[in-house]
Design brief:
The protein has 15 helices and 17 strands. By secondary structure, it is of the alpha/beta class. The longest helix has about 35 residues, at about 25-60. The chain binds adenosine-5'-diphosphate and magnesium ion (MG). It is found in: Mitochondrion inner membrane. It comes from Sparassis crispa.
């Protein structure tokens, strides 16, 4: 029987009818045979198309990651990592052999001002293939050139991963691996975020955390701020129950080099919070954008605005002087506690000139705790000295001096500072640190007097 007929429903009545009509007639049989072949071919073609679609639908799975999602950066970093590993044996990163690569450069800025740039080759826009856990994966990176993300001007991008359906579980494995890699890269590190259009984006590589104890503040100051922040973070429910916005503002003020920025960085690191840097004088930052940024801060992050006094006093806010930046003072106050401002936020402000701040800014609700970090006190100088030179025979120490001697020298340092202060002079913690870095203990005790400046 021809394939066309065999695909008819097997109905007893119709079958007996057909066979009784045609079964004995050879001409009919031949004609039907030919027609059957034709129908059969077209059915076969339909079946092929259908099965390709079905194959795509049933046997392939795709995963789309857009660059709005954090997984996008994780995935590219993960790919870049595999590329880096592949320099030894190329099997791990077959896309190295593809012809479309793009470069991902990260900058690492060190405290002393030096920096280095790291280049990673990642798969560029186009189609690539890779093998992961014995599964072949097609990686298609596409850039939408026509539309750009609102405000940030970054083109939309997607990476689409496609693999066989039976291997679908590799996606979650792959994403988990990429995420774990990102988490490990940040472990023990401080992540700095900066505005990127309307969004916050990590800036540079995560930095090594600075121990909180390494910032030596006047007696009790460090604990006071730390306790306040911790207490606030514990009391979220208390705020929610009372319908109070869950926000707190801190102002650290005092002369340059007293440890304001260092302390805030160290504190964020010690609580495993990110630090979001906001520069109010930045070009193109206007009131509406500021409100948006401040009400959309990343989870577990502190906002840091340095030198708040400078943002509004420097210039007249016209665009005639070429300045496009137009955060107004009232706009800033609104962003801090207006109706549209975010529900949840910890904000740190710093200034060298608290006397220049408008009283409206430092009232409770905007600034809840204001702490002076001043020039070195005698006791601070001693503690910094002991922190620097103590620790005896640890690796990297220049001298090996027993702890008692260090303590004794520390008390000498304390006395020198006391005497100089009585003469109306001052020294910053930054200046002390600067000298300790390049001096032996004896030189430090000797030279400390030269650092003092008139008030
Ligand atoms: N209280 C301090 N304890 C330890 N180091 C300090 C202290 N104050 C300043 N420094 C050092 O001086 C430098 C400048 O400090 P920084 O935090 O930028 O001061 P500020 O922000 O108050 O101007 C940093 O390298 C920091 O390590
Ligand atoms: Mg500073």
């Amino acid at each position: 029987m021809s394939p066309a007929l065999s695909s008819l429903p097997a109905h007893v009545d119709s079958r007996s009818l057909v066979s009784s009509l045609l079964g004995d007639n050879p001409y009919f049989q031949a004609g039907f045979g030919l027609m059957g072949v034709g129908v059969g071919l077209s059915v076969f073609r339909q079946a092929m198309i259908f099965s390709t679609v079905a194959l795509r639908r049933r046997m392939l799975v795709s995963l789309e990651i857009s660059n709005k999602d954090p997984a996008y950066d994780w995935f590219l970093a993960w790919m870049a990592h595999r590329t880096a590993n592949a320099n030894t044996g190329s099997a791990a990163a077959p896309w190295l052999r593809s012809h479309q690569l793009s470069v991902q450069t990260s900058h690492e800025q060190r405290k002393n001002g030096s920096s280095n740039a790291l280049f990673k080759l990642v798969a560029g826009p186009g189609t690539h293939w890779m093998r992961f856990r014995k599964a072949w994966i097609q990686v298609k990176r596409e850039r939408e050139t026509r539309s750009q993300q609102l405000m940030s001007g970054i083109p939309w991008e997607t990476v689409t991963l496609t693999t066989l359906s039976r291997d679908r579980n590799v996606f979650s494995e792959l994403l988990r691996e990429a995420r774990d890699m990102a988490v490990v890269a940040q472990e023990g590190k401080l992540v700095i975020q900066i505005p990127w259009g309307l969004e916050w984006k990590p800036f540079g590589l995560p930095r090594r955390k600075r121990p909180l104890k390494s910032v030596v503040l006047a007696e009790g100051a460090s604990e006071r701020i730390e306790e306040d922040v911790k207490a606030f973070l514990r009391r979220r429910q208390w705020y929610v129950d009372r319908g109070i916005p869950y926000r707190r503002g801190y102002l650290l003020h005092g002369p340059p080099g007293s440890g304001k920025s260092s302390f805030i960085q160290a504190l964020a690191g010690s609580l495993s919070y990110d630090l979001c840097l906001l520069n109010l004088s930045e070009r193109g930052l206007a009131d509406d954008k500021l409100i948006h940024l401040l009400s959309n801060t990343p989870e577990r992050s502190f906002v840091l605005i340095e030198d708040v006094d400078a943002a509004f006093n420097k210039r007249v806010q016209t665009s005639e002087d070429g300045y496009q930046s137009s955060v107004t003072f009232s706009g800033f106050l609104n962003a801090l506690d207006g109706v549209a401002s975010g529900e949840e936020r910890v904000i740190f402000l710093t200034t060298n000139h608290p006397e220049r701040l408008d009283p409206a800014l430092v009232r409770p609700g905007r600034v809840d705790l204001s702490v002076l970090l001043d020039d070195a006190t005698p006791e601070q100088a001693r503690r910094l000295f002991v922190r620097f030179y103590g620790g005896g025979g640890e690796d990297g120490a220049w001298e090996h001096i027993d702890p008692q001697t260090i303590e004794k020298m520390g008390r000498e340092v304390e006395e020198v500072v006391k005497r100089e202060m009585k003469l109306g002079k001052r020294v910053s913690m930054a200046a002390l640190q600067g000298m300790f870095i390049r001096s032996t203990t004896a030189e430090a005790v000797q030279g400390i007097r030269t650092l003092f400046m008139p008030k």
